Every structure is written in structure tokens, then in C-alpha cells.
Amino acid sequence: MHPTPSPRVHAGRAVLLTTGLAIALGACTSGAAISSAGVSAPAPTVERSTGPGAVASQVPDVGTTIGDVPDDAVFLTYDDPDLGFGIQYVEGWQVTRAVDGVMIRDKDSSETIQVVTGVSDPARYVTSTDLPGLQAQQGFALIKQDTVQIGGRSLVHLVYHLPAPPDPVTGKVVDSTVDRYYVPGAPGIAVVSLSTPNGVDNVDAFRQMIESFAWA
């Protein structure tokens, strides 16, 4: 995927709401599927951001140096009218729009959405196309493949280890854990990948993100 120039974000209020946007999108919980287990965090503040173009948040980064999302993080909503979806992300994360999706990343964590059109069977797509592509990448290790219930939807789900894309500034590569979801919709499927450094617990924040995903 090739990022488009001149990103924009329009902020407003609302309640609602990561290896490259290539086939290995994204990378989330420390070796386990996202679940509702864990210490409950205070209810986060949620604001809305919209914009079909590439976007760069201008607020200070609220993440830590190891990719942990703090309990008091503020969430914004990214709306993409061109691709027809919306999802929450953490204020201060860098938003980069591409032709078929968006990557939203902190220092070492990321949230990536890729829309794959014309796909009606997520399980078949995973088995025939996506998983073989992931397995061809150096450092890939599958932890589990299952189906999970998220917001009343039954979603195909992978958990795997894969080094995150190099930091654009420092070039540092972090060994990460990815939770990857396949959300069916009218255009096809959205591949939502949530990545965090191995050993970092972003369960609550990442559950909020995937539960917030909605087709327009």
C-alpha cells in the first residue's frame, strides 16, 4: 500500500472509538486473544475525527516508550467515508491513510485496517490467501487461529508473533504480538490488526478498538 499525501483530520465530539499495510498488517495482547479479562480501566474520553485523506494527529503522544496505552488515554474516532468504516484509536497516535486502508501507530504499538473488496468468505480468505502470506514472512509464528464473538459478531481471528515494521525515525524493530480480525461487510472484509510489543498488556484498549469498528 502506498500512503497518499496531505493527511487531514477534523476533530469533533462523539461517543464510539497495526509489518505495514501490506499483507502482514498490524501486530496485540501478549500471546493471547483479546478478552474482557483484566483490571477495568476508567471510562475513556472519546472524541471524533473524520477525513478520507492521509491523517496526522497534532496532539502530544500519550503512549509510553514501550507501547503501553495508559488507562486515562483519550480515544478519537477515525471515519473513512471512502472505504466506508469507522474505528477508534488513541489520541496522539500517528494516522497514515493508504489506498485500501489506514495505519495508526504509536512508538511500538499499532492499529491497522485494510479493506479487501470482493471477499465473501473470511475463513476461506484466511486459509487460502492471508495466512500463507503471513507465514512467508521472516519471524512469523502462529499462536492460534479461532473464531471469537466481538460486539455480537462472530469473527475469524488470528494471534501471532511478528516483528513490527521498523520505526520510521529510529529504524528500531520490535518483536510484537498481533491480534488480527476479519470483519465482513458489504464491500468485502476489513482486516483489523492490533499490534503491541511482546509482554505489553493492551487488552482493554485493543478490545475497545475492535468493538468500535463499524461499517458505514
Question: How would you characterize the overall build of this protein?
Answer:
- 11% of the residues lie in helices and 38% in strands.
- With 216 residues, the protein is mostly beta strands.
- The protein has one domain (10-17, 20-215): 3-Layer(aba) Sandwich (Protein Transport Mog1p, Chain A), CATH 3.40.1000.
Strand-pairing-aware structural class = mainly beta
Amount of beta strand: 35-45%
Reported for the largest beta sheet, the result is: 7 strands, antiparallel
Measure the end-to-end span: 22 Å
CATH superfamily: Mog1/PsbP, alpha/beta/alpha sandwich
CATH topology: Protein Transport Mog1p, Chain A
Tally of structural domains: 1
The number of helices is 2
Features:
single chain; 216 residues; mainly beta; Protein Transport Mog1p, Chain A; seven-stranded antiparallel β-sheet; five-stranded mixed β-sheet; 2 helices; 12 strands; disordered N terminus
Question: Layout of SSEs?
Answer:
Blueprint: E1 10-13, E2 46-50, E3 75-80, E4 85-90, E5 94-98, E6 101-105, E7 110-117, H1 122-135, E8 141-150, E9 153-163, E10 175-184, E11 188-197, H2 203-212, E12 214-215
Parallel strand pairs: 2-3
Antiparallel strand pairs: 1-2, 3-4, 4-12, 5-6, 6-7, 7-11, 8-9, 9-10, 10-11
